[in-house]
Design a protein that fits this description.
four-stranded mixed beta sheet, 19 strands, single chain, six-stranded mixed beta sheet
Length: 433
């Protein structure tokens, strides 16, 4: 017998989130198969016909489609990933795979990245099924593997081998965005409308091998070190996209600050840790992440290698590459390994109004603001299909919440109230968009 409570969004979200956290899906260690089976079982119970598709043994993706009330509208893609990054239990207050509910939070690896969204989707689908409601348009649900390691067996594989499942989708929502930022005049909810591109710069210095005690004018390690230092310390110029400028303007209005284009870092300081995400999108970044050379304590190696993580402001890729090449001397060889193009999407009135209305129904102070994400998500893969991708995982955060540190951090957790809020907003959005 169906109870009224079961038809209300949020009724099951905490249990789903806890259950999913307990299913260890650590990337590179534990396959996603168990979590995929859990998701598929609940989708089937909600009257859907989920497909389980594996990019490799155990690396399981789940895709399902919900029929909408107006099937002539372009479908919406809602995607989330099932894998999580590693966690060392010795460093945590609670076991990272316990899914424990404590002090008003659900604790564990994946609580915000991003099994919270998986749980919200399952809760909303269950609520729709029990309450006899359908979304306005068809909704394609994709729960994917391998996002934390590039999506080779997840979104990238689906786009390559099963693009027909998403071919008619026009808009997608996924991570990261939708969370609240307090201001003196209410809450800003950040909607990710852009993402920086990503590539790896590989550097190799060739020199003269020899004894460490002797003078060597062709020391590969020294040549490489100079170049890596020059790139890491290079002051890349300010590049404000339309998205970032709008974000700064709205932030300035909320805090009564001026000069958003001239001194953006000072404006971002007003929002604390969240400013770290947006601050990294003001310029190109080039961060050394790996060095490899030699081994013996008294031998100068003939070669030295470095790897640099490069993130490019969308629309300025060629400029960035040209600037990097000027910093690399001719005696070093370099290569670029693409990891995903950046993108910047316009926010149309219908989508903006629908998201805003869904938020305002739960938070009368809510104001939607676009932002650019400094890192890459599965949106880089789905956007290759011409889908406009946005980051929207609705969460009203508790006061004083250091949300940014939860991503890949110790004691990752999400508030119970935030999960219920997210389910209600997501339910309203899907039934009206």
């Amino acid at each position: 017998m169906t109870t009224l409570q079961e038809t209300v969004p949020g009724a099951h979200v905490v249990r789903y989130c806890s259950d999913l956290i307990r299913l260890d899906t650590t990337v590179g260690r534990r396959p996603e198969r168990g979590a995929a089976e859990y998701v598929a079982e609940r989708l089937a119970a909600a009257g859907l016909e989920p497909r389980m598709l594996e990019g490799a043994p155990g690396r399981t993706n789940v895709v399902a489609r919900i029929a909408g009330r107006e099937p002539e509208l372009p479908p919406l893609l809602v995607h989330s990933h099932l894998d999580v990054v590693p966690a060392d239990a010795a460093d945590w207050t609670v076991h990272p795979f316990s899914g424990e509910v404590k002090d008003g939070y659900v604790w564990g690896r994946g609580a915000v990245d991003m099994k919270d969204m998986v749980a919200m989707i399952l809760d909303v689908v269950t609520s729709m099924h029990v309450g006899g409601r359908a979304p306005r348009r068809d909704v394609v649900l994709a729960f994917v593997a391998d996002e934390e390691d590039g999506g080779t067996h997840g979104a990238a594989w689906l786009v390559e081998h099963h693009r027909d499942l998403f071919a008619d989708c026009d808009v997608a929502i996924g991570e990261v965005g939708g969370f609240s930022v307090p201001t003196p005049t209410g809450s800003l909810y950040l909607l990710e409308t852009a993402q920086k591109g990503a590539f790896t710069l590989e550097l190799t210095a060739n020199g003269l091998a020899g004894h460490g005690s002797m003078l060597n004018e062709r020391n590969a390690v020294e040549a490489l070190a100079h170049t890596v230092s020059a790139i890491a310390g290079h002051p890349f110029p300010l590049r404000l996209t339309a998205t970032t400028q709008e974000f700064l303007d709205r932030l300035g209005e909320a805090f009564g600050l001026s000069g958003t284009a001239d001194e953006p870092e000072q404006v971002l300081a007003a929002i604390g840790e969240v400013g770290r995400i947006v601050g990294a999108t003001l310029r190109h970044t080039a961060t050394p992440v790996a060095l490899r050379a030699g081994g013996a304590p008294n031998v100068v190696p003939a070669q030295a290698h470095a790897r640099i993580d490069c993130r490019t402001v969308p629309g300025h890729e060629e400029e960035f590459l040209a600037e990097l090449r000027r910093l690399i001397p001719p005696e070093l060889t370099s290569s670029v390994v693409p990891r995903g193009d950046g993108h910047e999407n316009g926010l149309d009135d219908d989508l903006s109004a629908t998201i805003s209305a869904a938020l305002l129904a739960e938070d009368p102070t809510a104001r939607l603001v676009p932002f650019c994400m400094s890192s890459a998500t599965d949106a880089r893969h789905f956007s290759r299909l011409g889908i406009r991708c946005f980051g929207f995982v609705p969460l009203r955060l508790p006061p004083g919440s250091d949300f940014v540190s939860m991503f890949h951090g110790t004691d990752e957790r999400v508030a119970v109230d935030s999960l219920a809020f997210g389910s209600r907003v997501l339910h309203r959005f899907l039934t009206t968009y």
